Amino acid sequence: MKWSEIAIHTTNEAVEPVSNILHEAGASGVVIEDPHDLYKERENVFGEIYQLNPADYPDEGVIVKAYLPVNSFLGETVDAIKEAINNLLLFDIDLGRNAVSISEVNEEEWATAWKKYYNPVKISERFTIVPTWEDYAPVSSDELIIELDPGMAFGTGTHPTTVMCIQALERTVKPGDMVVDVGTGSGVLSIAAALLQARGVTALDLDEVAVASAKINVKLNKVHDVVSVSQNNLLDGVEGSADVVVANILAEVIVRFTDDVAKVVKPSGYFIASGIIGQKKQEVKDAMIASGFSIEETILMEDWVAIIAKRNH
Q1: Which of 60, 87, 194, 258 is disulfide-compatible with 291, CB 3.0–4.6 A?
Q2: Quick one: fold of 2-116?
Q3: How far is it, in rounded angstroms, from Cα 28 to Cα 84?
Q4: DSSP readout, 104-144?
Q5: 3 within 8 A of 67, measured Cβ to Cβ
Q6: Which fold has domain 122-311?
Q7: Which pLDDT tens digit goes with each residue over 157-199?
């Protein structure tokens, strides 16, 4: 079977929305070639070893790749992808070069092409994300392992916004807490909350592909008795009180539903938000404060920001 590799040369800011567009177009996963990865000094912090080839990465910007089957609808699909990406300009998202290229690969090449990019990664003091095909042994008794299959939707769980959210969950989730994960994607944040001994986690996403992916990953990590995954638009219709709400979505969306978060989070509960590019940081903080939150901590990684806010009494 023939597959078409579609590569979009864009910016770090646009990686997540572009990836989502590719998933909605039928891609079963994405490869992100970000030159920043070549210069990360993670091994100095957590001890893991990286073997990355600079030839696989662009000189500037980010390349997002996905694989689609070659069929009679491919041309229409590519046109729809281009149109959806161009529409991101309406949200004031910098698309950079916004260059789209197409190449053909055979099934054997496609099946293994992305694996070279994905190895076990220790993303925080306690969490390590491991691809399902790797035989990985924890290096300490308190290490928490999240298994993901990056061949499915929504990436590898190692994007800076995801990493910061997991680090924020480590700082805020206590055993017995109730957590809501808005825009769950792969379900990685819900899995992390469950492994941190949350009593219950509600994972929500509007995209049915994300919901299916999250359900599989939740079962893979054996936390399906704690995590409930369902299709939902943000917090529409969500009732009850949560100790922590986490949302790794676009800043433009976050600022529109901070009031809804305030209705769901308990007094002194936490709202963790990421998916925020640096220049949108203050706008998100202002919206949180206006909705009755105080800013507890701001986490920075590369060009991205995560904010931990606490609901006032």
Answers
A1: 258
A2: Alpha-Beta Plaits (3.30.70)
A3: 18
A4: EEEHHHHHHHTGGG---EE-SSSEEEEETT-----SSTT-E
A5: yes
A6: Rossmann fold (3.40.50)
A7: 778 899 999 999 999 999 999 999 999 988 999 999 999 999 9
